[in-house]
Fold DNA primase.
Amino acid sequence: MQAKELKEYILADIERLYIILRNAGFHDFRERAEEIRCALPNYTNPTGVMIKLNNSLNTSLFELGYSGDIFGALGVVLEKQFYEVMSYIHSLLGLSSNHVANSFDPLATLKKLSKKSNTQHRRITNNKLYDKGVLNKFVNGIHASVIEEGISPDIARRFDVMYDPHLDRVVFPHYDWNEFDKVVGIQGRSTMSKAELEITGTPKYLNYIKDYYKLLNLYGYNQSCQNINDHKRIILFEAEKSVLKEFTLSRGDGV
């Protein structure tokens, strides 16, 4: 089963969802008005998790700041990648997981092209991974220019858009396209006008991690992965703000 089919299978018998949640360590369940409330593993708040019993199985982990679907939530709690979560669920429910191993990777072609693109990058196969603590030097807030460009505050927060008051730059963390909780790049965009940039000789963009190769990653794939798998399409953009606008206005399958 693909992700959409698996959700339909789980919803056909809600006990299947409880099996998954209990095995992952969730507890103190309460079911009400087409949703399940419960506590996270190792937490005590019985309303800290909300799972909507809709076709998407939208899930919020309030204490961890996660909002997405049940598969992504399990990935956060179990510290597993998407394909590992799928295998885990198939195993719990006694389903064949052959399709998981052979499932289509929407990035397979792009990854091959990235490694063949030019001589300079052929010796490099992966970016260096950093924990989220590398972002602690920035202000966890949204600059007004982000909102003025038509990006919703919720989407900006979802993508961890921040601000550097020392260099007056909007900060866009780039998460790895394999390990979604690891930072590989930090792009800073100046808030100066074009005229101010020309007068001061300030570069519009600054990469805070010097050895980050954008060629070997896709901005926002950590957020759009599930949508890309569900919709069977991927939209490529050049700039971070275009990805954020697409999430604000559409279905969230742009990178």
